[in-house]
């Protein structure tokens, strides 16, 4: 099992994001925090269920550790909501339907598809929300960026997926197809996180550099598994 200290994790910022101005795409701070908190809660729930249904003790521990990291991020954002004298459930409620639908559509039919879903979509969305902290108040943004850039347990998930592919190399093609499908669903949810007018050609052009960078990091994640993006 791969063990990583939360204290030694560095803030992760996707390569190239410094070239993209996120500030005018960031929603108001309360909306941002509500969305980000519920997304992390969703990943915690998915990983917890995977851990419960996994029989291998080593894999169970790795997945449970990843669930713990997601919960820690959720709780950190909830604390930030509390600092603003808001209620977390009220802040998250408007975004729950879209996130729940997203998690259902990306659940996968097998354990390995589910693991790949979390690895890909959590990384994708963490990168997006880190970038969007550029537009948050200076007393909030750096703290949230550091929180979201901390360890997510992704290396452990990569180990489990790599081992599964080594056991049965035919899985690689199926997982590669599944990974490509995840991009579309994740981009749809990402639109909900941006301050844009959906359907506007001008707005789509404005966010294109952001999504280009997100897809580039998605490709690197797939490469880490030896899969074609």
Describe this protein's structure.
With 229 residues, the chain is mostly helical. The chain has one domain: Up-down Bundle (Ferritin), CATH 1.20.1260. The chain is 69% helix and 0% strand. It is built from nine helices and no strands. It has helices spanning 29-53, 57-83, 88-92, 96-105, 111-132, 141-148, 154-167, 171-193, 201-224. Helix 1 (29-53) packs antiparallel against helix 2, helix 5 (111-132) packs antiparallel against helix 6 (141-148) and helix 5 packs antiparallel against helix 7. The longest helix has 27 residues, at 57-83.
Task: Give a summary of the structure in a few sentences.
The chain is mostly helical. It has helices spanning 29-53, 57-83, 88-92, 96-105, 111-132, 141-148, 154-167, 171-193, 201-224.
Question: Whole-Å distance between the termini?
Answer: 26 Å
Percent of residues in helices comes to 55-70%
Count, helices: 9
Domains counted in the coordinates: how many?
1
- Rough outline: globular
Q: Helix and strand string, N-terminal first?
A: HHHHHHHHH
* Secondary structure tally: strands: 0
**Rounded to an integer, what's the Rg over CA atoms?**
17 Å
CATH topology: Ferritin
Relevant CATH superfamily? Ferritin, core subunit, four-helix bundle
